[in-house]
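Progress note, project year one: complex with flavin-adenine dinucleotide.
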Amino acid sequence: MQLHPQKRSKVPAYLNAVNRLRIVKIQEIMGESPTVKTFTFRDKLCGRAEPGQFVMVWIPGVDEIPISLSTITPNGLTSITVAQVGEATKALHQRKRGDLLGIRGPYGKGFTLTSGNIMIAGGGTGLVPLMPLTEKLVKLSTKLTFLLGAKTKDELLFLDRIDQTLSKVNAEIVAATEDGSYGLKGIVTDQAEQRLAKEKFDMIYACGPEQMMYKMFLLAERYHMSFQASLERIMHCAIGLCGSCVIGKLRVCKDGPVLNSEQLRSVKEEFGKFKRGFQGRKIAV
Ligand SMILES: Cc1cc2nc3c(=O)[nH]c(=O)nc-3n(C[C@H](O)[C@H](O)[C@H](O)COP(=O)(O)OP(=O)(O)OC[C@H]3O[C@@H](n4cnc5c(N)ncnc54)[C@H](O)[C@@H]3O)c2cc1C
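Model obtained:
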């Protein structure tokens, strides 16, 4: 059907381009841990992404999955960092330099940048979207407390990158592992609690397993501090239509994935408790 010229979609050209599948060539692959790899490619639109936004990555012949950007540079050199958990991520891990991937996006609402005294708490692959965020915040913060955690030393991501990024600013880096194989023995939320009890932070950013983010949210509420977290849900369309990522009245792909304290309060019946499975049924987190 031919649309009347005046009735054509008013969607800005930029958004049309974002939704178009682009084919990118993998330029570099780096092992981050026994189960996590970083894939680098070039894409102009990703160069304009906000920290916390994600792309839909199409692995030809397998599936399309949501993945956060782990590196964002204005010239378009981009990376994603992916844990092998199932079919699509296993197929991605088998890809070699020079292989092709499809991407669309960047999608969603990223982190809102703040200045002042900042806490960042990340666990496992939750550290991925926190890396480009940290690289922006070093120019704005007066002090940065970076808490990172994992089950074991092998699974702690980006240690060198965090050290390097924070080397020239007023920062404290605290690593914790559950088995004590690196840094402090224990979990990130315990470290956060000790600091929140005696210091005022202007913003707390978190990304990691949902129980960890939920605990961080409760701590932020208890100590009356502002909070943002990046949530994970099953996503298919990534543009707010299919409903697979719904939490309360919010769609994580469009209203998030980064949600602030006010938004999280509005979904507190589900946040930290339920998510939707591939069939749309609520399942315990
Ligand atoms: C906005 C967003 C950003 C993400 N960013 C990253 C990232 O930067 N790096 C990364 O490694 N992963 C990220 N994920 C998770 C990633 O999308 C899933 O791990 C991936 O879709 C799994 O696909 P699969 O086919 O390999 O596994 P499947 O075979 O589909 O699933 C295997 C198991 O993985 C788990 N799983 C599947 N999908 C999800 C999901 N969406 N969220 C949480 N667990 C899931 C389930 O427990 C499932 O049983 C992100 C998810 C979202 C929603």
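The mean pLDDT is 94.
The pocket of flavin-adenine dinucleotide is lined by residues 54, 63, 65-68, 81-83, 85-89, 125, 128, 232-235, 257 (CB under 6 Å).
No further modelling is planned for this target in the current period.
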